Amino acid sequence: MNESISNETRDIILDVTEKLIYKSGIAATSMDLLVKTAGVSRKSIYRYFADKDALVVAALQRRDIRWMHWFTNAVDQTETPADRLLNLFTVLKGWFDSEGFRGCAFINTSGETGDPQDPVRLVAKEHKQKLLDYVCELCTEYGAEDPQLLARQLLILIEGAITVALVMGDHSAADNAQCMARKLLGL
Amino acid sequence: MNESISNETRDIILDVTEKLIYKSGIAATSMDLLVKTAGVSRKSIYRYFADKDALVVAALQRRDIRWMHWFTNAVDQTETPADRLLNLFTVLKGWFDSEGFRGCAFINTSGETGDPQDPVRLVAKEHKQKLLDYVCELCTEYGAEDPQLLARQLLILIEGAITVALVMGDHSAADNAQCMARKLLGL
DNA sequence: CGAACAGTAGAACGAGTGTTCTCCTTGGTC
DNA sequence: GACCAAGGAGAACACTCGTTCTACTGTTCG
Question: Residue B25 belongs to a domain with what CATH number?
């Protein structure tokens, strides 16, 4: 009857795929491990997804949506536009300190894939574009002279903090990035 | 006679491994492809390296040394300490625009490996620590109040620019990072 | 009831993986 | 000349990969 009813099995598959990819990367996430972890049969996976590539892309798109929702919601929990811009890095800090933090899934999977035209890379690019657009909105609300330039600079701070936090294990990168953002905003 | 004579075959193997890993990642670099590309036999590879892991680590350590040499040499081609700090990003820009640029090999391979204790991750951490130490030296020469803090902030700008350049394909990230560095240095 | 469907369990297949092996050639060194 | 280490070409092994298949179990609905 209802064609848009949420399919439970499909959701489980996507959930588990998303988690395994984030934890260990695409190559290390075998269909066998997926079957065992999700508790579904191989046939069920191939019923909903043409092949592993399609499954991976769908899982990453799901993570894109969910991460952006979580991030923007958390950042928006402050009053003034200036607070929101600084809050970007406070929320990042909380993410770094959370259990199971493994950096940004999209940076990681981009590094795994050599071909820039690979669907995985395109999803990553779209994700970062969405993040840039969101930051740009905040900059506009803040009343920045050049919101686009400011947003691009803040994005560099965000990506830099994430990368340093992952590779060096230095979670204080969020604080250092926030310190730079403060100077940039003239606060 | 001379025990420290440079071994040509070993060098070729390391060279090709380094290039293939940078181009396509560790998982995509099979021993078979390595044999065909390097024009050496499997036996030769296993004569010099215990297994693939050891080869990968050795190739990454080699890249660490060579990249740092190249980078510091290029950056040091300026007169004043202030110029050198800004030159960090000019050199980065040149790297981004160079043919075959695929981001930072150490960020990429860190994303490929889930386990933080993996030798690959340790090599990456050491590489970024060396880079941080170098930037810290420049900051000290510059006469910064807190060279360590400044260096950590500049490192975030560097890693952020690299990540944005790779994932978004936006090479102007180097310019934007340099712009922020200028503000940070009060120039 | 019975057809249709979503699902599990698991075998099977071909291709690719890292690794080891044998056989052959080459270029020195006692 | 005898020896031996270095290297090449490629077969072979055990394993894992993604993918497909068959056989069986419920559930739903006309």
Answer: 1.10.357.10
Structural domain range at position A71: 60-185
* Whether B124 and A183 lie within 8 Å, measured CB to CB: no
Local confidence band at A184 (pLDDT 50, 70, 90 cut-offs): very high
pLDDT at B3 over 80: no
Residue B3 lies in a domain: no
| Cβ burial A10-46 (10 Å sphere, 16+ → b, else e) | beebbebbbbbbbebbbebbeeeebbeebebeeeebe
Number of domains in chain A: 1
* Assigned domain for A118 exists: yes
User: Which DSSP letter does residue B7 get?
Assistant: P
Q: Is residue B40 part of a domain?
A: yes
**Average pLDDT of B1-11?**
68
pLDDT digit string, tens, across residues A109-162: 999 999 999 999 999 999 999 999 999 999 999 999 999 999 999 999 999 999
For residue A40, give how far its alpha carbon lies from the nearest alpha carbon of chain B (Å): 24
Partner-chain residue, chosen from B27, B28, B157, that has the shortest CB–CB distance to A160: B157
> With contacts defined as CB-CB under 8 Å, which chain A residues touch B165?
none
Give every CB contact of residue A173 below 8 A, 6+ residues apart in sequence: A96, A160, A161, A162, A164, A165, B152, B156
Question: CB–CB of B85/B185 below 8 Å?
Answer: yes
Q: Given a cut of 60, is residue A44 above it in pLDDT?
A: yes
Residue A100 lies in a domain: yes
